[in-house]
Amino acid sequence: MIFKNCTFYNEFFEKEFGDIEIENGIIKQIGILAKEGRDMSRLILIPGFVDIHIHGCGGGDASDASKESLDIMSKELARHGITSFCPTTMTLSQNRLVDIVSLTAKYESKGAKIAGINLEGPYIAISKKGAQNGNYIRKGSLDEFNELYTAGDEKIKLITIAPEAFESDEFIKNVSKKCTVSIGHSSANSKECKRAVDCGIRHATHLFNAMTPMTHREAGIAGTVLDDDRVMCELICDGGHICPAVLRNAFDMLGEDRAVVVSDSMRGAGLGEGEFELGGQQVFVKKNGGYAVLSDGTIAASITNIHTEFKNLIRFGIDFKTALKSCTINPARAIKEDNKIGSIQTGKCADLVFLDENMDIKEVYINGILA
Questions:
Q1: What's phi and psi for 197, nearest 5 deg?
Q2: 73 near 87, Cβ under 8 Å?
Q3: How far apart are CA 328 and CA 333, in angstroms?
Q4: Is 264 among the catalytic positions?
Q5: Which terminal CB of the chain, N or C, has fewer other CB atoms within 10 Å?
């Protein structure tokens, strides 16, 4: 398959014009090719979006431990240009988590492909649990993690912990050799956060949400990770979890290489108003609501997707290159999958999204196949 006359964003995320040849799901050649192909001159080509923190959408949820739910999610995500994702668990019992990661590791995608598994908890702080179920919060255990890592066929790519909630130094040092360790759902102060980063934490889960804030006297988690070039930071860019002014400030500090846009969406994403389940708890999406909430009004999860967030970022004033990298190559790099996905480059998966001049999706290709 050859796409001719493409206006696309190359591996350096600079605009380029040329042809792209795909063979066996991989980008074979990029350039001006003396071959026939399909004329794509009226469209804009970008890499497929990568969502590394998503619980559910379209009625499916990763924590269902159900092939049918993963089918729903992968098909729904593909419609929105998300070509790779990490199904994300909630804080649940060990037996339940084993079931989830075992099934997810064996799943063969019907749409967007699974780039890995994300464990959000259960080793978090009760004071910052947000919509996580407090009944299952517990101290970090290497034995538990190793059981999950094995059950998940070593496909766990990310885990969120609260380092101050248990003696976490050795846990971080050991687990960071197998996957990315993230700080989140945590009440750590700046000193505790810095210690955790020194031990190997390299990621922050949904920046500003469920963590200690930055103030003029104490950096908290938010200020500490923003100030440390070793740490990549997730941002939910639905306009509700973080206000646009704060997003602009965060992107100024993070630059173009450290921001990771995530949806953190739940099963109600795309379904409108209603009552849904998240980690064994009731959550509600209200009419014209921007996100899901618990019965007491606590923000539970988003109902957005990466494509919508990408358009939001442009509307909020984030430059195109930074917005695109934060939705594609940066999340891929955060889970160490950037050698396969996240950019348009020879030898990488042919995960491609064609947009019109309004940034609306026209066609999506996953491993070179039209979704």
A1: -65, -40
A2: yes
A3: 9
A4: yes
A5: N
- Give the pLDDT of residue 216: 96
What 94-98 contacts at long range (C-beta under 8 Å, 24+ apart), as own/partner pairs, is 94/144, 94/147, 94/148, 96/63, 96/65, 97/122, 97/148, 98/147, 98/148, 98/151
Which residue shows structure tokens 């965060």? 250
Residues 57-94 have pLDDT tens digits of: 999 999 999 999 999 999 999 999 999 999 999 999 99
d(CA 70, CA 21): 30
What lies within 8 Å, CB to CB, of 352 at 6+ separation is 3, 20, 45, 46, 47, 48, 83, 344, 364, 365
Q: What are phi and psi of 298, to 5 degrees?
A: -60, 130
Cis peptide before 213 (omega within 30 of 0): no
In the set 64, 264, 338, 351, the catalytic residue is 264
Minimal CA–CA distance to 285: which of 301, 307, 296?
A: 301
Of 178, 167, 238, residue with least CA distance to 202: 178
- C-alpha 198/C-alpha 220 separation (Å) is 16
Q: How far apart are CA 366 and CA 352, in angstroms?
A: 7
Residues 6 or more apart in contact with residue 135 via CB below 8 angstroms: none
Find tokens 């109902």 and name the residue.
303
What tens digit of pLDDT does each residue of 93-141 get? 999 999 999 999 999 998 999 999 999 999 999 999 988 999 999 999 9
The predicted structure's pLDDT at residue 290: 79
Q: Would you state the structure tokens that stand for residue 70, as one six-digit string?
A: 């993963």
Q: How many CA atoms lie within 13 A of 312 on its CB side?
A: 25
CA distance 133 to 63: 13
Q: Which of 362, 205, 365, 238 is nearest to 306 (CA)?
A: 238
